[in-house]
Amino acid sequence: MRSILAAAFALCLLTVAPVRSLAGDPQHDVSAAYATFDATYNKGDAKAVVALYLPNAKVLPPTHEVASGPAAIEKFFAGFYANGVTDHKLEVIDAGGDDKVVYGTANWSAKGKDKDGKPASFSGIATHVFERQADGSLKLRLHTFN
After folding, report:
1. Per-residue pLDDT tens for 53-88?
2. Residue 76, CB-side half-sphere exposure with 13 Å CA sphere
3. CA-CA-CA-CA dihedral for 66, 72, 73, 77, to nearest 10
4. Domain assignment present for 17
5. Domain encompassing residue 59
6. Checking CA distances to 2, which of 19, 37, 101, 146 falls within 20 to 30 Å?
7. Whole-number average pLDDT of the chain
């Protein structure tokens, strides 16, 4: 009888105990995702950058030429590398979301060359929408910047 009561009590505890969510602190998670993005971008490998995006992701740059899907996103970033854009950095402005969708806004900066080929710094703001994966990691669904 005691083992039946103990088992019933354990079952009750399991049903009322809080379930661990994969969602972490959005600020921390977005900061980590941005650090991963910067490190990956700064290696100069467009294929590795594409792996940070979902297969149906979109990049919306200031040129208004939407890059949709892996091939277009890879081509987009390959263009940056071909033009010598390096030292990419994202700094969180704000982050939020839930256990499925997380957003981040950031100041971004990078180095490259101006139209005359002289060293230049670039910067702007960016918005990112991530989807949380089964392992808790974030993958980009939408990336827009100016």
Report:
1. 999 999 999 999 999 999 999 999 999 999 999 999
2. 23
3. -100
4. no
5. 23-145
6. 19
7. 87
Does the residue 67 lie in any domain?
Answer: yes
CA distance 26 to 64: 28
Rg of the chain over all Cα atoms, to the nearest angstrom:
21
The token pair that represents 2 in the structure block: 């005691």
Tally of structural domains, the chain: 1
Question: Which one, of 108, 106, 98, lies nearest residue 130 by Cα?
Answer: 98
CATH at residue 74: 3.10.450.50
Distance CA 85, CA 111 (A): 6
pLDDT score of 4 more than 80 = no
